[in-house]
Automatic annotation (TrEMBL), chain A:
<dbReference type="InterPro" id="IPR026791">
    <property type="entry name" value="DOCK"/>
</dbReference>
<keyword id="KW-0728">SH3 domain</keyword>
<dbReference type="GO" id="GO:0005737">
    <property type="term" value="C:cytoplasm"/>
</dbReference>
<dbReference type="GO" id="GO:0005886">
    <property type="term" value="C:plasma membrane"/>
</dbReference>
<dbReference type="InterPro" id="IPR042455">
    <property type="entry name" value="DOCK_N_sub1"/>
</dbReference>
<feature type="domain" description="SH3">
    <location>
        <begin position="5"/>
        <end position="66"/>
    </location>
</feature>
<protein>
    <recommendedName>
        <fullName>SH3 domain-containing protein</fullName>
    </recommendedName>
</protein>
<dbReference type="Pfam" id="PF16172">
    <property type="entry name" value="DOCK_N"/>
</dbReference>
<dbReference type="GO" id="GO:0005085">
    <property type="term" value="F:guanyl-nucleotide exchange factor activity"/>
</dbReference>
TrEMBL record, chain B:
<keyword id="KW-0729">SH3-binding</keyword>
<dbReference type="InterPro" id="IPR016024">
    <property type="entry name" value="ARM-type_fold"/>
</dbReference>
<dbReference type="InterPro" id="IPR024574">
    <property type="entry name" value="ELMO_ARM"/>
</dbReference>
<dbReference type="GO" id="GO:0007015">
    <property type="term" value="P:actin filament organization"/>
</dbReference>
<dbReference type="Pfam" id="PF16457">
    <property type="entry name" value="PH_12"/>
</dbReference>
<dbReference type="GO" id="GO:0048870">
    <property type="term" value="P:cell motility"/>
</dbReference>
<dbReference type="InterPro" id="IPR011989">
    <property type="entry name" value="ARM-like"/>
</dbReference>
<dbReference type="GO" id="GO:0006909">
    <property type="term" value="P:phagocytosis"/>
</dbReference>
<feature type="domain" description="ELMO">
    <location>
        <begin position="314"/>
        <end position="488"/>
    </location>
</feature>
Length: 142, 722
C-alpha cells in the first residue's frame, strides 16, 4: 500500500542506478522530496531533474528535517548553487579575476556554512558568521 | 616405474600417532577414536610387556600442557600427535600421597614440585582431591616448622588445585588464615612464591568465604604497605593490591572510610607511585590499579547522591563561607555574620546571584539535584578555601560584567562536578576488563577536589574564549568535556602535568582538532566508491567546459611574434584565429595593435587537413632555437595531410597562451587535452562541483558501500500521478 508522505525530504547517501520499474536514478548528495512510501521504497522527485517522479529504496536516503534548518544556511545553499552556474560561465569567458574572487568567496561561504551546521558555535559566533554570510552574499550579488 | 597406489581413504575416525614411554621404543599406532581408551592402553601395554595396564594413562605433549587424555578431550588427538604413556592420575596421586606421608624430605620436595605442575590438570586434580590429598597439603602448609621448599611447592600446588573451582574456599579454617597472614607479615623469611600464594589465598578467602572478617582483623595495612615497598616481585605487588581491593569491596561503609583514609595518606600514595606505578605495568597490575582507583573515587558516590538537606547546618555554613570568601571586602568587616545579617537577606540574595546560583534566594536548592548533590558544594568550598585568589578572581570577573557574557560560578561548578563524575564513572562498579587508571589520582590527598579546581579554571577560560552567553551552556560544556577527556588520555603523571597539558589544549586547539578530524573524514569520504563514481560521472561535463573555454580563446585569436633563424624579429607580428564554426584557422600578418577580422587574414588552413600537433623540440622551427632556450617550451607546430613537409609554426608569447592553443588544437583534433593548466582547471572545477553536489550531506554519513536494495514494492498503485 502506498501511503502519502507529508513534506518529507531527504538526501541520497549513495548513487542509485534507478534500474527498476518506475525507478528514479540518484547521485550521492542529491536532495529528494518524498511524495509517498510503501514498504522499503520511497517515490518522489529530485530538484535536479524537475518533473520526473520515481522510486528509490529507503536505504539510500537519509531523511532530513527541514524545519530545523537555519534560514541563513538555507540561503547559503541556494546562493552557492546559483553562483556555481555563474562561476562556470566566468571560467568559459576567461574572466579570470572575477573567476578567482568568486571562487574564494564561495569557498569561504562553504566553510562558514559548515561551521554553522556543526552546531558547536556559541550564539555570538553564530551571529557574527551570519553577518559575514550576508555581507558576502551582498558582495556576490553586486 | 609404476606410480605408487594411492592409499585408500582412511576412515576419519582413525588417526596416526606416536606413543612414547620412558626407557622404551616409541610405538606408531593407528588411534581409533571409536575404540575405548582402556582398550588402546591395554594394547600399548601388551606391546611393552606391561601387565598392570589399569595403572596407565595417555598424556598429551608440551604443546597441550601435558593434559591427560580422557574420553572427553580425546578428539584433540590429531594425525601426527605424540602422546606419552604414563602412570594414571589415580596411580600417580596415590604414589605422591604415599611419599608425602612417609618419604624423606628430599623425596617430598621432588614429588611436591611434580605435584605443583600436575595440579593444573583437571583430571589429575579431581583424582588427587578425591584421595584426600588436600588435607595432607593443608597440614603441611599449616605446619609452622615446615621446610621452606616443601612449603613453597605445597602452596603452589594448593592454589593450582583450588583454581579448578571444585572445592569451596569456605572449608579453610582460621589457623590456615593465620598461617598465611604470618607468611605475608614475615615475607622476608619465605620464598617469594610462598608470599605470592599467601596473598592469593587471602584474596580468594576474602572474596569467596565468610571468614573474610578474620582477615580484615588480622591483616594490617601497614604490613601490606611494607610488602608493596620492599618486594621486588611485581606479582607480590599485584597480589597485594588485589588483596587490598578485595578487602575494600567487602568492607562496610565505616571500614571503607578507614581504608580510604589509610590509602590516601601520603606514605601510602608515595609507595604506590614510586614502587608500583614507576615500574613496567602488566595488564593485570594495570587492572588492579584501575580497580583501586575506581574504589577510592567511588567513595565520593555517597556525597554525589546526597541531596542537600534543609537542616544540614554544615552545608549551610559552607554556602555562607563561599559568600564570605568572595565578598568579604565588599560586605563589611571581617565577615562577621551577625553584622551582615543586619543588612538583611536582600543583600545576601544579591551576593548569591553574583555567585551564579540558579536560586539566589535559597542557594541550597541548587544542590537538590543528584548527581552531583552536595559533592558539588564540597568541591566549591575546597576551591574557595585552597585557591582563594583564583576563586575570588573567577567570581568577581563574572559578577562584575555588565553584558550577558558572565560565566555563572555556581551553576557551572555544579554542572562541572556532574561532568567530572560522569567522566570518571563515579558510582559505577569497577569493570572486569578495564586497565585505564590515571597516576595523577594517586598524587594528592584530595585528588578529585584538586581535579575540580583545575577544571573550573579551564572552564572559565574556555567560556571567555568562546565569548559564550548563558544560552551556550551546553556548547561550552561539550568543549570542556573534550578538553578534559583528551587531556586525561595523555595519562598525565601528576596534577601539575594535567594542569599544564589542559592549558595548551584551549578552545582554539580543540577547534583545530575538530577541523582536522572533519578534513580527514572528508578525505576519507572522497575516496568512497559513491563519490569516485560521481566524479567520473561529472567529468565529461567539466571537460566540455574546459574545451569550450579553449575554443573560445582560439576564436578570439592571438598575436604571435615572428621569428627568423631562431631569433624574434622586432615589430613583426602575425595573427591566427579560429573561425566560429571551428572549421578554419585564419592567419596573416598584422601590426602590434589592431585585431584583424577573419576577412583581413589572408591565409587559412582547414581543420580537417591538420594531421598532428607538434610541441617543443619536435617542431622544425625549434631546431634553430639554440640561443633562447625558454622559448623552446612555447613553440608548437601543426602538420598537414595534403602538403608535404610544410608546417605552420607558432611561438606563443607566454605559457598560458601555449597551453590554451595546444589544448584547443588537441580538442579540434579530438585528442585529449594534455596541458598542466588543463589538469589544474579540471581539479578546480571538479572539486567545487563535488562540494556543491554534496552540500546536503553535511553531517550525514555517506554510505561507503551500496546499501542493500530491497525487494520490489508490492504494487505500483501510486497515490499521485506522475
Amino acid at each position: 500500500m502506498w501511503i502519502p508522505a507529508n513534506n518529507k525530504y531527504g538526501v541520497a547517501i549513495h548513487n542509485w542506478h534507478g534500474d527498476v520499474q518506475c525507478g528514479l536514478p540518484l547521485d550521492v548528495g542529491d536532495s529528494v522530496e518524498i511524495l509517498e512510501e510503501c514498504g522499503d521504497w520511497y517515490r518522489g522527485t529530485c530538484p535536479r531533474r524537475p518533473r520526473t517522479v520515481g522510486l528509490f529504496p529507503k536505504s539510500y536516503i537519509h531523511i532530513k528535517d527541514l524545519s530545523k534548518t537555519d534560514p541563513v544556511v538555507a540561503e547559503c545553499t541556494q546562493v552557492l548553487r546559483e553562483w556555481s552556474e555563474i562561476w562556470k560561465q566566468l571560467f568559459v569567458k576567461r574572466e579570470n579575476y572575477k573567476f578567482i574572487s568568486l571562487r574564494k568567496v564561495m569557498l569561504s561561504l562553504l566553510e562558514i556554512r559548515r561551521e554553522l551546521l556543526g552546531a558547536t558555535l556559541t550564539q555570538d559566533q553564530t551571529l557574527e558568521l551570519q553577518m559575514t554570510v550576508i555581507s558576502k552574499i551582498d558582495w556576490g550579488n553586486r | 616405474m609404476l606410480p605408487k597406489k594411492m592409499p585408500a581413504l582412511k576412515d576419519s575416525h582413525i588417526v596416526k600417532i606416536a606413543v612414547q614411554m620412558a626407557q622404551q621404543n616409541a610405538q606408531l599406532i593407528e588411534f581409533n577414536q571409536r575404540q575405548p581408551l582402556t582398550g588402546i592402553i591395554q594394547e600399548l601395554c601388551n606391546n611393552w610387556n606391561i601387565s598392570d595396564s589399569e595403572n596407565y594413562s595417555l598424556q598429551f605433549c608440551e604443546t597441550n600442557n601435558h593434559k591427560y587424555v580422557t574420553e572427553k578431550n580425546r578428539n584433540e588427538v590429531k594425525n601426527g600427535s605424540v602422546l606419552q604413556l604414563r602412570h594414571s592420575p589415580s596411580k600417580t596421586a596415590n604414589d605422591i600421597l604415599d611419599t608425602l606421608r612417609s618419604g624423606s624430605t628430599g623425596k617430598k620436595i621432588e614429588c611436591l614440585e611434580n605435584l605443583s605442575q600436575l595440579s593444573s590438570d583437571l583430571t589429575f586434580a579431581l583424582e588427587f582431591i578425591k584421595e584426600q590429598g588436600l588435607n595432607i597439603i593443608l597440614a603441611m602448609i599449616e605446619d609452622p616448622d615446615c621446610e621452606v621448599n616443601i612449603l613453597k611447592f605445597s602452596m603452589l600446588s594448593f592454589l593450582e588445585l583450588m583454581e579448578h573451582g571444585t572445592v569451596s574456599w569456605e572449608i579453610l579454617q582460621n589457623h590456615f588464615i593465620t598461617r598465611n597472614v604470618n607468611i605475608i607479615e614475615n615475607f622476608g623469611r619465605f620464598p617469594k612464591e610462598s608470599v605470592e600464594c599467601a596473598l592469593s589465598n587471602l584474596e580468594n578467602i576474602v572474596q569467596n568465604s565468610m571468614k573474610y572478617t578474620q582477615i580484615e582483623q588480622d591483616v594490617t595495612f601497614e604490613g601490606l604497605l611494607k610488602l608493596l615497598q620492599s618486594s621486588t616481585s611485581s606479582v607480590v605487588q599485584q597480589n597485594t593490591i588485589a588483596l587490598i581491593n578485595a578487602l575494600f569491596v567487602k568492607a562496610d561503609d565505616e571500614r571503607k572510610r578507614q581504608i580510604a583514609q589509610t590509602l590516601s595518606t601520603k606514605e601510602f600514595r608515595s609507595v604506590i607511585l614510586s614502587s608500583v606505578i614507576s615500574s613496567d605495568l602488566g595488564t593485570e597490575m594495570s587492572h588492579q590499579l584501575y580497580v583501586l582507583q575506581t574504589l577510592t573515587l567511588g567513595l565520593l558516590e555517597n556525597r554525589m547522591r546526597m541531596k542537600m538537606n534543609a537542616q544540614d547546618q554544615d552545608a549551610h555554613d559552607k554556602i555562607k563561607e563561599l559568600r564570605r570568601i568572595a565578598f568579604d571586602d565588599y560586605s563589611g568587616s571581617g565577615g562577621n555574620d551577625d553584622q551582615m545579617r543586619r543588612g538583611g537577606n536582600v543583600n545576601f540574595s544579591q551576593y548569591y546571584k553574583k555567585l551564579g546560583f540558579k536560586c539566589d534566594i535559597n542557594p541550597a536548592q541548587d544542590f537538590f539535584e543528584t548527581p552531583p548533590g552536595v559533592l558539588a558544594l564540597d568541591c566549591m568550598v575546597y576551591f574557595a578555601r585552597n585557591y582563594t585568589q583564583q576563586y575570588t578572581k573567577v567570581v568577581h570577573e563574572n559578577s562584575c560584567r555588565a553584558d550577558e557574557h558572565e560565566c555563572p560560578f555556581g551553576r557551572t561548578s555544579i554542572e562541572l562536578v556532574k561532568l567530572l563524575c560522569e567522566i570518571l564513572r563515579i558510582g559505577e562498579p569497577p569493570s572486569e576488563q578495564s586497565t585505564v587508571f590515571y597516576p595523577m589520582f594517586f598524587t594528592h590527598d584530595h585528588p578529585f577536589e584538586e581535579f575540580f579546581c583545575i577544571c573550573i579554571v579551564t572552564l572559565n577560560r574556555t567560556w571567555k574564549d568562546m565569548r559564550a552567553t548563558s544560552e551556550d551552556f551546553l556548547k561550552v560544556f561539550s568543549v570542556v568535556r573534550e578538553q578534559i577527556t583528551r587531556t586525561l588520555g595523555f595519562l598525565p603523571n601528576n596534577l601539575d602535568d594535567f594542569r599544564s597539558k589542559i592549558a595548551t589544549l584551549n578552545y582554539q586547539a580543540i577547534t583545530t582538532l575538530r577541523q582536522q578530524e572533519r578534513t580527514s573524514k572528508e578525505a576519507c569520504e572522497s575516496t568512497a566508491s559513491s563519490i569516485v563514481k560521481l566524479k567520473e560521472k561529472i567529468t565529461p561535463e567539466i571537460m566540455s567546459l574546459i574545451k569550450q573555454q579553449r575554443l573560445n580563446f582560439l576564436i578570439e585569436g592571438t598575436r604571435f611574434s615572428k621569428y627568423s633563424r631562431g631569433a624574434r624579429s622586432k615589430d613583426k607580428f602575425w595573427y591566427a584565429r579560429l573561425s566560429p564554426n571551428y572549421k578554419v584557422i585564419h592567419y596573416g600578418d598584422c601590426d602590434e595593435k589592431t585585431v584583424p577580422s577573419l576577412d583581413e587574414l589572408s591565409n587559412k588552413v582547414l581543420v580537417i587537413d591538420i594531421r598532428q600537433l607538434l610541441v617543443g623540440k619536435e617542431c622544425p622551427h625549434m631546431k634553430e632555437m639554440r640561443a633562447r632556450k625558454s622559448a623552446i617550451n612555447l613553440g608548437f607546430s601543426i602538420t598537414f595531410d595534403n602538403m608535404d613537409q610544410s608546417t605552420l609554426d607558432f611561438v606563443a608569447p607566454d605559457e598560458t597562451t601555449f597551453n590554451y592553443w595546444t589544448d584547443g588544437i588537441n580538442a579540434l583534433l579530438g585528442n585529449p587535452m594534455t596541458s598542466k593548466q588543463m589538469e589544474d582547471d579540471f581539479e578546480t572545477l571538479l572539486s567545487m562541483e563535488i562540494k556543491l553536489r554534496l552540500l546536503d550531506t553535511e553531517g550525514v554519513d555517506i554510505s561507503k558501500d551500496p546499501p542493500p536494495i530491497p525487494d520490489d514494492p508490492e504494487n505500483y498503485d501510486f497515490c499521485f500521478e506522475s
